[in-house]
Each structure stands twice: as structure tokens, then as C-alpha cells.
Amino acid sequence: MARPRILVVGAGFAGVECVRRLERRLTPGEAEITLVTPFSYQLYLPLLPQVAAGVLTPQSVAVSLRRSRRHRTRIVPGGAIGVDTDAKVCVVRKITDEIVNEPYDYIVLAAGSVTRTFDIPGLVEHARGMKTLAEAAYIRDHVIAQLDLADASQDEEERASRLQFVVVGGGYAGTETAACLQRLTTSALRHYPRLDPKLIKWHLIDIAPKLMPELGDKLGRDAMKILRRRGIEVSLGVSIAEATAERVTFTDGRVLPCRTLIWTAGVAASPLIATLGAETVRGRLAVTPELSLRGSDGVFALGDAAAVPDLAKGDGAVCPPTAQHALRQGRTVADNLIASLRGTPLARYEHKDLGLVVDLGGRDAVSKPLGIELKGLPAQAVARGYHWSALRTNVAKTRVMTNWMLNAIAGDDFVRTGFQLRSPATLKDFEYTDTYLTPEQVREHTAATVIRH
Questions:
Q1: Matching CATH topology for 5-115+268-353+433-451 and 117-265?
Q2: 286-326: pLDDT as tens digits
Q3: May I ask which residue range the UniProt record assigns to the signal sequence (predicted)?
Q4: Quick check: 244 and 162 in contact, CB under 8 A?
Q5: What is 117-265's CATH topology?
Q6: Taking the domains of the chain in order of start, what are their residue ranges?
Q7: Rounded to two decimals, what is the model's pTM?
């Protein structure tokens, strides 16, 4: 008898945790496990701002999927572009652009999220994101290039535009990105004696009235003070009205000469979710407390792609798209898959949030572990300790700790790799959000495949 086929889509926190638990708890004869992902690594997303700032190397936060001693999962190098839940087929575009079908008995949709954008003139053409390893590496090169070009320029207007940087998004990603990159440019100044320090200006803006509201009023104000003390101009209740290659217009009417616009204003569920034609909650797939899709046999969804009921909060709340929830949901889905195979009851997902950590670089941080408000060095110790312990392999932990120590002792480096030197490298160039099929196209594709066979 053929083994049941378990197909996991996505190698983020949720997908990898699910696969690893299945590998540990299922015998090889119980199921065949397949993972669909463009890259054979798990990206530790919360540390991307430190990669952009050069504190960590890209390899440090890209944790290999093949290092596990129990590794037996077949990895399909590509991205899922459609799912037909009736035919039980997932349509995959490989990294070679070849389109293949992956049949399944059980599917785990852990496709994650993409950068959320709006219909703002020039945004997708001129903004950079902070959602992928390639984007973080590119932004580092780009920021250092602006310093090099400004230093070499004899044109005062060009210098001014190259030395103004705008980050949109007052959540964790945007705040940490602005803070870490501002430290990089400040540290770089001693190597650029021709540059006037007053010309380097960082702007952090958000349409919301508060910075990182999840932290609470006091820590939010503390974070604001830290940023402003370091010279970062924080503007709340403001967004972008228009962006061009050389300037950014704010919704309050200000026009800034600027060659660097970093967009971190939230995330949206992967476009894969729309291909199912199923019920969604604000774009995320509506699932039961057991993380299964109602009315579809063998379909589970979790992480950023799913609106998982938050039973710890109640009142119809859904779990926020955080690594903390994704990891635990991955374990719950793995256990429920095993229960489905063995004919035992499924478990409901419930987890009380353990708190938040925000690393602002250097000795600056704000954290709220278990509701305890911290700032400064204690907060930094908690933030880095949490991230370090969450890394999945000892190799990754060693690399990250070594990078932190080296940066603390030797300081920052200002080397450009030349990554995508002559490419636009904007939002649309990294996340490939235009490759997905519509629900109708998915069904037409699977029906045509069945007829041919």
C-alpha cells in the first residue's frame, strides 16, 4: 500500500517546525513528506535588520534544512502558485520556471506573507522591502553606495538626496531597520571625511498614531526617545503620497530629496491563499482551532497565511503573524497530521503570548517579556538571548554569537558586494507576487493534466 503523501508549502518558522516534528515522530513507513520552497534554508526573519546593517552575515540567519540528522524530506525547489483542493493537487513553479503538479493526501499551507503595498504612485517601482535575505543584502549595498556616491559628488543637491533615507512602517521591522541602518551610517562617517554629518538624515514614518503600539505606551515612548536621541526623525500619522527615483512626497505635504525608500508597512498573506477560493479573514485563510480548513479534506493552514483563532484571548481574536505563534502552530499541525494518520482526536491550538523584544542596535533595546517592561542593556540581553535560543541549529547559534562578538570588538564594516549592482531591485523584483494563478486557472490546469494522463 502506498504511503500517505504529506505536502508542506513554505519553509518559514511554521513550515519547518512542522516538517521537523513529523520527521521525529513518524516512522519512514508511515508517510512520505515533501516540502515546497524556493530555498533549502529557513530564514530567521527577525534578524534581517542586523544583516542589512552588516552586524550579521547572511549565512548566519539562513539555517540549512539539510543539517538535521533525521532529514528525509524531499525538497522541491520552487514556489507553490496554486492549490486545487478537490483534485488534491498543488501546482508548483520550480526555480527553472518549469510548472509541475505535486499530488497530496494532506497539505500544510505555511506559505507565509508578502510585503503589503498600496496604490501609491511610484511605490512598487522605487521602494525597497525588508522581507527576504536578498532584500537585506541589497539594502546594505545600496545604503553604502549612497555614502560612496555622495562622497564623490561635487553637486550639493545630489549629496543631500543621497544622504536622506526614509523608512515607512513603525512596527518592529521598520523600527529595527531604521535603528540598525542609522547606526551603520553614523559609524561610517569617520571613513568619509568629506561628508558633513548633518547631511545624513534618517526618517521613520507611520500612518498609525503610536510607534509599536503592542509594546504599550511607556515602552513606545522610550523607543521614540532612543530613536530621536540618535537623530532619527519620527513622524506619526504620516505616510507616502508619491515616490520617484530622487524624491519622496509625504501625505503632510513635505517633499524630501531622497534616493532610498524602505517600505515595511505591514504584511499580507501569500497570494497563494487566494488560489483556493476559500473563506478568508483579511486575506488570511479562515481555519478551525485545529488549524484545518473547513469543508476541505486534509488541508491545514497556519502562520502568516492563516487566521488562526486566538483561544487565549477569545472574543473572536486571531493570532498575530509572529514567529512565536508560527513555531507553536507548526508543532500543533504536525501532531494533528499524525493524529489524522493514526485515527486519534485532533488538538486545538492555544498559546498565551510570551512578550515582545525589539533590538535597536548597540546597547539600545526595549523588551516586554512576560509583561515585564525593560529597556537598555537588560532589554538588549533579553532580545538577543531570545533570538539566539530560537535559532534551530548549533551551527547557526555559533555563527550569530561569533558575529555579535566580532562586531562588538571590531566595529562595523563598509564593504559593498556589488549585489544586483545595475538592477532596479525594488519590491516587485524580489517577492514575485505576479506569478500566482487564479482559482479558475488552477482548476483548468489540473483538469487538463488529468485529461492528458
A1: yes
A2: 999 999 999 999 999 999 999 999 999 988 899 999 999 99
A3: none
A4: no
A5: FAD/NAD(P)-binding domain (3.50.50)
A6: 5-115+268-353+433-451, 117-265
A7: 0.93
